[in-house]
Design a protein that fits this description.
The complex is a heterodimer of chains A (311) and B (268). Chain A is mainly alpha-helical and 311 residues long. Chain A has a single domain, classed as MetI-like (MetI-like fold, Orthogonal Bundle). Chain A is flat. With 268 residues, chain B is mainly α. Chain B has a single domain, classed as MetI-like fold (Orthogonal Bundle), CATH 1.10.3720. In chain B, helix 1 packs antiparallel against helix 11 and helix 7 runs antiparallel to helix 8. Chain B is globular and about 75 Å long. Classes of the chains: A mainly alpha (311), B mainly alpha (268). At the A-B interface, helix 3, helix 5, helix 6, helix 7 and helix 8 of A face helix 1, helix 3, helix 4, helix 5 and helix 6 of B.
Chain lengths: 311, 268
């Protein structure tokens, strides 16, 4: 640190200690306060509201701190444990959707991310653009597009009828249709972290391994895979927590007949008007999200992403 | 192995990588193509053999009063969200990347965490919280709600650009006598301009397309995405694909614009 820096630091420290309130209107505090206040009031507050409402008696619409009950948790956990009724189905559907979606996005994204990072030069910007555009299109519009594609007398139907194929079983309103929807919606969240991590593999590393006699398989297993591990972890956590929140996919592609955790939460809120019951279901989602989110953010290094973006 | 066959194998290999990425791209575009095809089709059921092209559903969409008011509500939410989230997110990004302060990593954790939350969780929490605070439902609560998710995304985008600046440039500006305001106006902001512009465009597109947060906070006011959702789940009409396509075209144009801003240097 230069002398000037040290002196400036001391002057700053002196001014701050003179009047802590004045320090707040100087950078960086004046710059970060709007965001910090917004999030404390409108992000931390709402998450606390979920937790607080989850212990209120059924159908409460205001918070009463003196009355609390665990009846909703008992109902949900009891239903999930017995495997019967709507909560048993919800547990199975949600676990199946999230797990299969995570595996499917990983399997399909990895080769694409590898190709984009290392094999493709021409039209790369066009490919990246095509992969980014769905991220910025409303989730219900994309899911609706899939419904138009898959539904009887839809786009797929009219294409296969050209080949004389008809009378195949319907493809809508099944668990795998929901999984197709979630795989589609959340695949960019797997593809881009892996892509960014593969960009960091240097050509020299690969050339050196080749010179030392590594086969393609060894090269992949010993060098490329370990170096892309952060991307795979971030992408998997990301896809897992986001597909736990899949509501529109279940509503449109599941046709209201297959409930996931998110669509059941939405149902408790919207149709049954039972905020505490919906909140109790949401608390599980909240805890998983919080844990995964913190792991993701501790793994992400913004400086590294910034330097790879130039590559 | 001869040189020619080696070259052939390499070219086939490269072709396979291109082919795979093209397939993935096709998968990404399938629902969007389906939407656009359906929006131009004059009838209830598709048929490639006797496809009848029509602009009728677009005319119907533009003529409908309820759709027009949903568009207006969407604009009334998106424009303030874009302006405010760009200011708030850019402030956060400059603070985080250009300064050192206590609790810096905790600030980053709080500031970026909403990006990783399923939107249904944010929406329903805010809905209850709005009732507890007496904030109510409508355009203003929707704006505040979307800011919670979009400002962190702007901060993320701007931070990536801001981390690319050499700190010595700002140091030099200070040494040459620039006060804080002058330094931002003449040095820092011009250097992160591209990040701020693409952050602002992304903010608009994300707000324009937001469904979950507005569906919980907008109350009786319908936006384009909640209107589409209502028509999809109850009372479908063939005008829905045209409305959905219109909102997609706007997003498409803006995302391409943001991409050009971000990648200008590389191609230029």
């Amino acid at each position: 640190m230069s002398t000037i820096d040290t002196l400036r630091g001391r002057i700053d420290a002196a001014t701050e200690s003179d009047n802590p309130l004045m320090a707040l209107v100087r950078p960086p505090y004046v710059l970060l306060l709007p965001l910090a206040i917004l999030l404390l009031v409108m992000f931390v507050g709402p998450m606390l509201a979920i937790v607080m409402f989850s212990v209120q008696p059924a159908n409460s619409i205001s918070l009463n701190p003196t009355v609390w009950t665990f009846e909703h948790y008992a109902e949900i956990i009891g239903g999930m444990a017995s495997g019967q009724g709507v909560y048993g189905d919800v547990l199975v559907n949600t676990a199946a959707v999230s797990a299969v979606t995570t595996v499917a996005t990983l399997v399909f994204s990895y080769p694409a991310a590898y190709a984009l990072a290392r094999k493709i030069d021409r039209y790369k910007t066009v490919f990246l653009l095509v992969l980014i555009i769905p991220l910025f299109t409303s989730v219900n519009i994309r899911v609706f597009g899939w419904a138009l594609f898959l539904v009887k007398n839809g786009v797929l139907d009219s294409v296969v009828s050209l080949f004389g194929v008809s009378n195949y079983p319907t493809m809508m309103y099944q668990r795998w249709t929901i999984i197709l929807g979630t795989t589609y919606v959340y695949m960019p969240f797997m593809l881009f972290p892996i892509y960014l991590s593969l960009l960091s593999v240097e050509d020299e590393t690969i050339a050196a391994a080749r010179d030392l006699g590594a086969t393609r398989w060894t090269l992949f297993r010993k060098i490329i895979l370990p170096l892309s591990k952060p991307g795979v972890i971030i992408g998997s956590l990301f896809v897992f927590i986001l597909s736990l929140g899949a509501d529109v996919e279940a509503q449109i592609l599941g046709g209201g007949s297959i409930f996931t955790m998110a669509s059941n939460i939405n149902y408790s809120f919207g149709y049954s008007q039972n905020w505490p019951l919906g909140s109790a279901q949401a608390v599980g989602l909240l805890i998983i999200t919080l844990v995964c989110g913190v792991i993701i953010l501790r793994t992400i290094n913004l400086k590294e992403i910034a330097s790879r973006g130039d590559a | 192995m001869s040189v020619e066959s080696r070259g052939l194998i390499d070219r086939l290999g490269a072709g396979a990588w291109y082919g795979y990425v093209a397939l993935v791209a096709l998968f990404f575009l399938t629902p969007l193509f389906s939407l656009v095809i359906a929006s131009f089709y004059d009838g209830r059921f598709f048929s490639i053999v006797d496809y009848e092209f029509s602009l009728g559903w677009y005319e119907a969409a533009l003529a409908s009063g309820s759709i027009r008011s949903a568009f207006m509500n969407t604009v009334r939410i998106s424009v303030p969200v874009t302006i405010l989230s760009t200011i708030i997110g850019t402030g956060g990004a400059i603070a985080y990347t250009r300064y050192e302060f206590p609790w810096q990593e905790r600030f980053k954790l709080l500031a970026l965490l909403p990006i990783f939350f399923p939107l249904i969780l944010l929406g329903l929490g805010m809905s209850m919280w709005a009732s507890v605070l007496g904030l109510g439902y409508g355009i203003v609560p929707s704006i505040i709600g979307e800011l919670v998710w979009i400002s962190p995304i702007v901060m993320f985008v701007v931070s990536i650009t801001a981390l690319g600046i050499d700190p010595n440039v700002e140091e030099a500006a200070r040494d040459l006598g620039a006060d804080t305001i002058t330094m931002y106006r003449r040095v820092t902001l011009p250097l992160i301009k591209d990040g701020v512009v693409s952050g602002a465009i992304f903010a608009f597109v994300l707000s324009w397309n937001n469904y979950y947060i507005v569906s919980y906070l907008s109350g009786a006011q319908s936006t384009i995405t909640t209107w589409i959702h209502g028509r999809m789940t109850q009372g479908f009409t063939p005008v829905v694909p045209a409305v959905a396509s219109l909102i997609f075209y706007v997003s498409l144009l803006l995302v391409v614009a943001a991409f050009i801003v971000e990648f200008r240097e590389e191609s230029g």
